[in-house]
Every structure is written in structure tokens, then in C-alpha cells.
Amino acid sequence: MQPKLNRLLRALAREGLDVTYDGRVYTVRLQGDENAPPAEVLLPPDLPVEGKAFQQLAALAALKHPGGGSVKRVRATPDFHPGDSGVAIGSVVHTEGLVVPAAVGTDINCGMRLHVADIPVEAFLARRDAFVERMKGHYFFGTRDVALGSRAVEALLRDGLPGWLLETLEAPLGVVAKADLGQLDRESMRVHLGGALEGDPSWAPTGLRREGVVRDPGLATIGGGNHFVEVQRVEAVLDRARAWEWGVREGQLAFMVHSGSRDMGKHVGLTWLERARAAWPVGAPFPESGILPLADPALVREYLRAEATAANYAFLNRLLLAELLRLTLRELFGDVEAPLVYDVPHNLTLPWEGGWLARKGACPAEAEQPVIIPGSMGAASYLMVGLGNSEALASASHGAGRARSRFSMARGGADQREEVLGLRGVDCITLRAERRIEEAPAAYKPIGPVVASQVEAGIVREVARLAPLMTFKA
User: Is 95 helix (H, G, I), strand (E, B) or coil?
Assistant: First the structure.
């Protein structure tokens, strides 16, 4: 390991980085910037290291604004890899006096939602085809009937899930009229922050801000990239007391939703990336990284309200994706409760120790909080409990992390045999053949070392392991 590590450190030094490694945590800083806090990356020695991701992480730690404010700490989770917006996926940044829109990006409140259901797996698989046909209609062919009254839309964007539910109780529309609204109300306590942030409806695209019945094409949609809906089996329970408390038992059916704010988040995110550029002080040089923070208190407040608006939309998007699946299970198997275990965000800016903590592709892991870490669609996923580790900024990985880009997986000449891609035995439902290849298990890091390293570091503890049965990819 040592000769290989020394070669790696020399290569990173040639790229302008000061890097050390203690066998568990990499410490990274831009050369010549001793005033910047070092960025830390929890990474097992057998997982790949990407110089570009280190560059992005060090640049994030070195951020400054002529108007003041500072970056206090930067940490990355073991699934970290380069991001398209200049901020590595898996980054967690603690700031005071400034916020960084790019540290959340455009997929605001991308997150995970997990349900369990007392349906025997064999009984479910016996009706697999009927289930898949119904879900393909909902997720791919637009047969879902998702309708909201304009007052419910406004309440959602302003107050989150509680506001939406309060308005919906009076006049439920479309598929929600078939849902158990009392159950949705009770489950709100299992959504991170109650699914309620202080938003501002004026930040919504004009298509959402109209009178009467609103049928937004983005709601109850999975989205592209690594987003998915997956049906699983609870393969093993590791913490029986905790699992019992959360309603999780070995052998149960489970379903996991990974999606975000869709075009709503893109609208807000792109707008604020441009506004951060426009607000940069005249005459001051732009950061070489291209990452532009906001320091003006009024702009910070306005950005956070806009981000919260998109986050509220994402909470409802995941709820509706899960509700379509839950209602389909009830059509096929009768009175199925399928309770929510937890819904948790990945891409969000939240208050932290007198400043702000922005996570980009990282999961909150506060003490006693459920943490959901998915593997690839050919590997296990994990339900964990957070330990509130302050060294890790109370954050865990949001998955295994990509090891290969989508381009490298799909380009001509890449080996696309099922066994090489890890797709043998994988039940992936998608309308795009290339999606199976781009998202194949071979594109991702092994989930085992990613999870084990965080358990060993005291960030999370295992509660249950879930094995995939089928995965829907848009």
C-alpha cells in the first residue's frame, strides 16, 4: 500500500494539492493557502481516489467572499466523487456569514424515502408482472392522476407537507383522494424536519402558480441520473430493538424512493447560480474554482427561502412516488399498511452551530436519526441509525458513490456483457436500454467498505440490510 500511496500523493502534489493520509482519513488543502481549513475525506484504503474530486473539495474549503464570512470546515463521505457543478458529490461544508448555492446545486432536496410492508416476498413475486405493468403506467406512461388545488400548491411551497395536507384534507384530488390521509398525517413525524421548511411560492415556475386545478408534470416522477424506486426484501436485522421500534422486521417487503425536486429545483438552483455571479462585487476577481458564495445577509435569506421552496416540493414528490406504489400494493394484496420508516434529504442547507451546513450528496446522521444508504441496484442497501458524530459534521454517505462515469459505461468499446456489468439477475425496469448500462452495479463502488468505514468511524450503526428485488429507472 505504501509505495502506491506515495505515488498517489506525489501525483496530487503535482496537481497543486497538499494531501496526507493516516489510513482512514485524507486531509486535503490547496498548496500555498495555509489560511484555508483543510478538507477531510473518510476513505478506506481499498476504494479509488479521484484527483478531480480532491481538487473540488480543496477549492470548496478555500472559498472566500470579499464581503466577509468564512468556511469553517469541509468534510466528504466515503462515496465522494467529482460533481458537474464544481462541488464534489459527498461534500459537507460548514460556513459562517455566507452560503454556497453550488454546494447544494440544482437537485435541491434529492433524498431517500423508505417504507416496509407485511407482504410475503413469494406472494409479491407471484404477481410481479401485474405489479410492474401498473407501475410502468404510473412512472413512465403518465397514467398517474396527480392533481392539486392551487391553494394546496401554495401551501406546499410556503409551509411544506403539513400545509399541503391541511389544504388537501378539505378537497383531495386525483390519486390522493384514494390515499389514507390520516396515515399521511401521522407519518409526517417520520419525515426529516417534518417535511416543512419556510418557503416562498413566488420562487416557483409560473406553471405551478395558476388558479384552479394544477397538474404539474414533475410531481410523482423519478427523474434521471442515479434516481430510482426500488422494491426490496429486508434481508437481515442487525439491531432488533431499534428495528422493532421503527416497524422493520426480517423478511418484510420494502420499497425505497430516491428522487428530488425535479424542474422546480433546477429552476431555483440555476437562478441562484446566476444571481450569485451577478451579486459578486464589481472589480473583485472571481474564484478560480467558479464557485461563488453569497455573503450579503439579505441575499442569503432570500436564497434560503428559495431553496426551502424547492425542498418542500421534493418532499411531496417522494411522498407521491411512494403513495402510487403503496396504492398499487393495496390493489393487488388488499389492506396493506406499508408504513413509512423515514424520509431524509441529501442536498440542503440547514442551520448549524451559528452558521450553515450544506450537504451535497450526503445524508444527515444526527443522533438517533434513521439513515438510509442505498447500494447499487445489484447490491444491498442499509438502514442505519445516526450517532451525531461532530467530527463527521453529523453526516453520512448517501450511497456507494460512482466509480465510473455514465459516459465511460456507455461509450463504444466499453465491455457491456451482463456479467461484467454486474447485471446478471438484476431486474431493472426502464424504457431506456442505455439506463441499465449507465447505472449498472459496475459503475458504483462496493457498498460494503463504504458502510463499514462509517461504522468503524462512529458515524452510524447498522439496523437492517435490504436486498433488491426490482428497480425502476426513468
Answer: strand
CA distance 166 to 154: 12
Distances (CA, A) of 412 to 78, 224, 409, 418, 438: 30, 21, 9, 16, 13
Using DSSP's 3-state secondary structure scheme, residue 143 falls into coil
Cell 425502476, residue located? 472
Q: Which amino acid is at 234?
A: V
Catalytic annotation, pick one of 94, 192, 227, 398:
398
Contact call for residues 430 and 356 (beta carbons, < 8 A): no
pLDDT band at 403 (very low <50, low <70, confident <90, very high): confident
DSSP type of residue 232: E
pLDDT category at 433 given cuts 50, 70, 90 is confident
Q: Please return the burial class of 64, using the count of CB atoms within 10 Å of its CB with bins 0-12, 13-18 and 19+.
A: middle
Based on the residue annotation, tell me whether 398 is a catalytic residue of this protein. yes
195-248 confidence digits (pLDDT tens): 999 999 999 998 898 899 999 999 999 999 899 999 999 999 999 999 999 999
Phi, psi of 223 (to 5 degrees): 90, 175
3-state secondary structure of 327: helix
Among 366, 359, 393, smallest CA distance to 192 is for 366
Distance CA 18, CA 273 (A): 29
Q: Can you give the pTM of this predicted structure?
A: 0.96
345: CB partners within 8 A, 6+ apart: 109, 110, 111, 192, 311, 314, 315, 359, 364
